[in-house]
């Protein structure tokens, strides 16, 4: 039974209350849902890429909600109580950081920076401090500490893996949730939720091609999947 439909995914309950099925759609939105379209085969690419990244992370000691991929568009996952905080890790300046702080995209940061955003469509996912998350009960201090450590560990693992495949991991967004007393990494990891630049040409290989009408969107998603699969 479908119990949630988001912009890019649908969630279905299963006969096991601890498990759900994620269905990856081709629908794409940007700028708070004001820009909408479909990207052919995006759901298939994002499902497969998320599977590969979750397996890589699990192998390296990061606990995730991933159980197994069921088919082209569906993944079996542990059913988390999602913490309403989006965690962004940045290695180079891009996107909203470039805009907010008046910096050039591509400026390297001296060390990875972790940011939090409050998951609220009504408020347009505002940037928050960890203090806000704690004060308003969205996460405990202990959970944020764990989230920080996990997010930086994910950054290290994915940055190295992608670097070996000629890709710079510019930044990415993660979501975490509670599962029987543990904090697990949830959601998806794909060109919708990361910025990937080709190391040699600095060409964008992610959803920014859709956000900013750069063309070659489908090609970029497939090119990224090809690199991650090799
Ligand atoms: P930003 O620069 O727009 O804040 O985005 C930072 C990273 O988070 C980037 O890799 C894209 C990802 N992201 C999402 O996954 N969902 C979103 O709604 C937004 C705005 C960004
Ligand atoms: N997914 C977000 C939205 O709709 C934004 C983004 O990824 O840029 O609007």
Topology of helices and strands:
Elements (H helix, E strand, L loop, with lengths): L1 E4 L3 E5 L5 E6 L2 E4 L4 E4 L3 H18 L6 E4 L4 E5 L2 E12 L2 H7 L6 E11 L8 E2 L1 H6 L5 H23 L3 E13 L2 E4 L8 E5 L9 H4 L5 H13 L1
Antiparallel strand pairs: 1-2, 2-3, 3-7, 4-5, 6-7, 8-9, 8-11, 9-10, 11-12, 11-13
Helix pairs in contact: 1-6
The structure holds thymidine-5'-phosphate and aspartic acid.
Folded structure, characterized:
- The chain is α+β, with helices and mostly antiparallel strands and 230 residues long.
- The chain folds into 2 domains: 2-78, Phosphorylase Kinase, domain 1, CATH 3.30.200; 82-216, ATP-grasp fold, B domain (D-amino Acid Aminotransferase, Chain A, domain 1, 2-Layer Sandwich).
- Helices cover 31% and strands 34% of the residues.
- The chain is built from 6 helices and 13 strands.
- Strands 8, 9, 10, 11, 12 and 13 form a 6-stranded antiparallel beta sheet that branches. A 5-stranded antiparallel beta sheet has the order 1-2-3-7-6.
- Helix 1 runs parallel beside helix 6.
- The longest helix is centred in the middle third of the chain and has 23 residues, at 141-163.
Give a brief outline of the structure:
The protein is of the alpha+beta class and about 230 residues long.
């Amino acid at each position: 039974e479908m119990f949630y439909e988001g912009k890019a995914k649908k969630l279905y309950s299963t006969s096991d209350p601890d498990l759900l099925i994620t269905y990856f759609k081709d629908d794409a939105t940007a700028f708070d849902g004001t820009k909408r379209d479909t990207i052919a085969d995006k759901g298939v690419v994002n499902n497969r890429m998320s599977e590969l990244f979750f397996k890589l992370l699990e192998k390296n000691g990061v606990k995730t909600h991933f159980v197994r991929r069921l088919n082209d568009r569906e993944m079996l996952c542990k059913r988390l109580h999602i913490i309403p905080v989006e965690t962004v890790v940045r290695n180079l300046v891009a996107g909203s950081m470039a805009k907010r702080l008046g910096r050039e995209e591509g400026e390297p940061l001296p060390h990875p920076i972790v940011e939090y955003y409050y998951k609220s469509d009504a408020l347009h996912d505002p940037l928050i401090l960890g203090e806000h998350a704690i004060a308003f009960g969205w996460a405990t201090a202990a959970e944020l500490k764990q989230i920080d450590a996990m997010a930086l560990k994910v950054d290290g693992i994915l940055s190295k893996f992608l670097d070996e495949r000629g890709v710079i991991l510019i930044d990415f967004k993660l979501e975490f949730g509670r599962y029987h007393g543990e904090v697990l990494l949830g959601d998806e990891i794909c060109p919708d939720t990361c910025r990937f630049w080709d190391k040699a040409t600095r060409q964008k290989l992610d959803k920014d091609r859709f956000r900013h009408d750069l063309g070659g969107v489908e090609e970029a998603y497939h090119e990224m999947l090809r690199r991650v699969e090799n």
